[in-house]
Design brief:
Helix content: 25-40%
Number of strands: 31
Distance between the termini: 21 Å
Number of domains: 3
Largest sheet: 6 strands, mixed
Oligomer: single chain
CATH topology of the largest domain: Rossmann fold
Number of helices: 29
Structural class: alpha/beta
Bound molecules: iron/sulfur cluster
Strand order of the largest sheet: 4-3-16-15-14-5
CATH architecture of the largest domain: 3-Layer(aba) Sandwich
Shape: globular
Radius of gyration: 25 Å
Length: about 750
């Protein structure tokens, strides 16, 4: 039974009202030191990050400026990612029993250091180092167990480069399966599905330069101060320029309130930095549709009275479905909207007024929108908001789902997709002279269900940490242990390694900042950011160990073991992989030539060109306001990252912007809910969810916090144990990690 171990009680401290500042610089240096990367060496490596001839940050997917780049073109959390990767500590996995590994937190596992040798565990034995040859032979041996290709599952994390991901999808399809669960299934899949159904493309439509012209920027369910920190520089410029910034988030996040740019003396010398949010909307968890419907209702009512409020010409030329939406908005009462959001009508009207006055607005969002059973509906409601004012296909306007992992968008573009289009498999089959499997494969939730239900599967993970990323941790742990073989391509130990299959192999890969030398010379890889810019990433640092291999080389080893095919030509020169991507994927014409330009190139986006041919017209949709059975004492829980965290990688136990130090065992609650439960800040509780069966975790302390009444927040992966796998969006398969009905009980120790 996996429950993320709790180590140390968090201590509450001062909540920050400004993000960034010199503390961000101090944090950067402290992480370089504590992670034993060395301050000087670490700063030298960081000096190459996000530079035009450097390597791409392995953190989030916020784009780099196309023109001028600062010498320090990174944020505190990007620096923490590199401190992790550049540690000189070498992991000695054989010193720990599997049980001992299960008792370590993700933070403690990360501190063990870099894995520099292949490792193997058999029948629950400790991991011992082995040769690449032995690993290859074991994989080949295990393949014999494969009764059907669909008993193999190929998981991908968003760190994988385009080149590695393309070979990986080719591997699985040549084996005969479309089982490509990937981390985007758990994050922006709802964006992809919701946008494809309404504007015909599943990617953002804005470029970084659009932020220079936007008159208003709406930010839904996103905490950029922690998850996309360089976005604060962009918001700072917009705020200084007078753009309105409207933040819609149950929690008051420092990074949305104000920002002190560490490289701007005027900010550092100022008391409060640059104020960002013009309007801060702390709505109840899961009520974005109600809020947006309130804005739409207001705009449509003003249109009735004053006319010339909505973009009529754009709407008549490019869209369909407005009459149904108008009817739905008029039938939706303000009581319904205000009850669902917990807001006042005047606040919603103020936001509608900001939106009305803006001739070009950008709508940004992240997990607070997508990780719900109504995630797709949330995204479609955002599209309604964009369409009603014609905020598409013009400068300073558009839709901007901000991706949380550096190449999660690129992986999907080059074929990591459990439901590939016929056009893609057709071109792939032609390029490699084989018949790719036609039937749809499994996404993350479906893969875990299959691994849990059936014995003897083969599970491959190209990066990532499925156990800590996915919901229903106990089920995921058992699912991994149920496999005949689990193979992880990793840089450092993580919790998924602590739940090995009958045979488990860990294969150590190069880090982003490390030199990738192959037969024809030094290689670079490519990635695609949130704004569809494909660009190079070339590490030049000395690898952490001589026996590391690149991701493409490791996938070639899989091809040798599983397909008995020699892919060393591709490994020798990645240009050959890119030639094949050019052959198979739209928008990559002259790939090798164009990607050698300093800032790479932008992939086509039909919605940005107002080309909705795939759908006929862009679609307004009617999305009902969701309701939650919280009953009298139930709470609606959202899980989230702390500031010392990137996805499942825990850099430290502090969350300084929210005033939490030295621990992660906290549940943020409104003071009224503490009173309702006869609790006071610091009291220990158990917290349960009750879907199909009861899931309960204990030893967490409640913390009085500025969050709407009836709502709660806690960190993941700790909170994942409460999220049932079955609680997911039916269209996108994205688990509902942002709205789970829970109950709490005082825990008497
Ligand atoms: S904003 Fe994102 S991509 Fe940029 S340095 Fe920070 S973590 Fe890395």
């Amino acid at each position: 039974m996996d429950k993320t171990p709790i180590k140390g009680d968090a201590q509450p401290g001062r909540i920050k009202s400004v993000a960034g500042g010199l503390t961000a610089v101090k944090q950067t240096l402290s992480h370089l030191r504590t992670k034993k990367a060395g301050a000087i060496r670490g700063l030298r490596i960081l000096g190459q990050m996000n530079q035009k001839n450097g390597f791409d940050c392995p953190g989030c997917a916020w784009p780099d400026p196309a023109d001028h780049r600062s010498k320090f073109e990174y944020c505190e959390n990007g620096a923490k990612a590199i401190a992790e990767e550049s540690t000189r500590t070498i992991a000695k996995l054989s010193e720990f029993s599997i049980k001992a590994l299960t008792e370590k937190t993700d933070f403690e596992l990360g501190l063990l250091g870099r894995i520099v040798q292949p490792h193997i565990s058999k029948n629950g034995s400790s991991y011992t180092s082995c040769s690449w040859e032995e690993a290859r032979n074991v994989i080949q041996e295990c393949k014999k167990n494969l009764s059907t290709p669909n008993d193999a599952i190929f998981y991908t994390s968003g760190r994988a480069s385009n080149e590695a991901a393309f070979l990986y999808q080719l591997l699985g399809r040549k084996l005969g399966t479309n089982n490509f669960p990937d981390c985007s299934n758990m994050c922006h899949e709802s964006s992809g599905v919701g946008m494809s159904k309404t504007v015909g493309v599943g990617k953002g439509t804005v470029s970084l330069s659009d932020f220079k012209y936007a008159e208003a920027i709406f930010i839904f369910g996103q905490n950029p101060g922690t998850n996309h920190p360089r976005m604060l520089s962009t918001l700072r410029e917009a705020a200084i320029r007078g753009a309105a910034i409207v933040c819609i988030n149950p929690l008051k996040e420092s990074g949305l309130l104000a920002f002190k740019h560490p490289q701007k003396p005027r900010d550092i010398l100022s008391k409060d930095g640059v104020a960002l949010a013009t309007e801060y909307v702390q709505l109840k968890v899961g009520s974005d549709i109600a809020f947006i419907k309130g804005m739409l209702k207001t705009l449509l009512e003003w249109q009735q009275v004053e006319g010339d409020i909505i973009a009529q010409e754009f709407i008549s030329q490019h869209t369909a479905g407005l009459p149904e939406l108008e009817e739905n908005c008029s039938k939706t009462s303000w009581d319904q909207i205000l009850d669902a959001t917990g807001l006042t009508k005047s606040q919603i009207v103020r936001c509608a007024d900001i939106y009305r006055r803006s001739s070009s607005s950008i709508i940004c969002w992240a997990m607070g929108i997508t990780q719900h059973v109504h995630g797709v509906a949330n995204v479609q409601e955002l599209v309604n908001l964009a369409l009603i004012k014609g905020n598409l296909g013009k400068q300073g306007a558009g839709l901007c789902p901000v991706r949380g992992h550096s190449n999660v968008q690129g992986d999907r573009t080059v074929g990591i997709n459990h439901a590939p289009s016929e056009e893609f498999t057709g071109r792939l089959g032609k390029a490699f002279s084989f018949s790719p499997p036609p039937s749809k494969g499994l996404d993350v939730a479906e893969s875990i269900e299959k691994m849990h239900r059936e014995d003897g599967l083969l599970f491959f993970a190209l990066g990532g940490n499925l156990l800590s990323a996915a919901p229903d941790s106990a089920v995921v742990a058992e699912a991994l242990q149920n496999c005949a073989l689990t193979v992880h391509v990793s840089t450092k130990p993580n919790r998924s390694h602590a739940y090995p299959g009958a045979v488990s192999i860990i294969l150590p890969c190069l880090g982003r900042s490390e030199l990738d030398k192959q037969a024809t010379g030094d290689q670079f890889v490519t990635v695609e950011n949130s704004m569809s810019v494909v660009h190079r990433s070339q590490g030049r640092g000395k690898p952490a160990g001589e026996n590391l291999r690149s991701e493409p080389a490791i996938v070639a080893l899989f091809a040798d073991a599983l397909l008995d095919e020699d892919w060393n030509d591709y490994v020798a020169n990645y240009d050959r992989i890119r030639d094949k991507i050019e052959e198979v994927v739209d928008g990559f014409e002259n790939y090798n030539q164009r990607v050698r330009s300093e800032s790479g190139f932008i992939l086509p986006n039909s919605a940005r060109e107002l080309d909705f041919e795939a759908l006929g017209k862009a679609q307004f949709t009617v999305n009902e306001i969701p309701t939650f059975e919280t009953k009298e004492k139930g709470l609606l829980l959202m899980t989230m990252r702390s500031h010392d965290q990137f996805n499942t990688t825990i850099y430290g136990n502090d969350d300084r912007y929210r005033g939490v130090y030295g621990g992660r065992n906290v549940v943020f609650l409104n003071e009224k809910d503490l009173v309702k439960h006869s609790l006071k800040s610091g009291d220990k509780i158990s917290i349960s969810s009750n879907y199909e069966k009861k899931r309960c975790i204990a030893g967490y302390q409640v913390l009085s916090y500025d969050i709407p009444e009836g709502c709660a927040a806690m960190y993941f992966p700790e909170g994942n144990a409460l999220v049932p796998l079955s609680l997911r969006d039916k269209q996108s398969g994205t688990p509902s990690s942002k709205s789970i009905v829970v109950t709490i009980r005082k825990h008497f120790s």
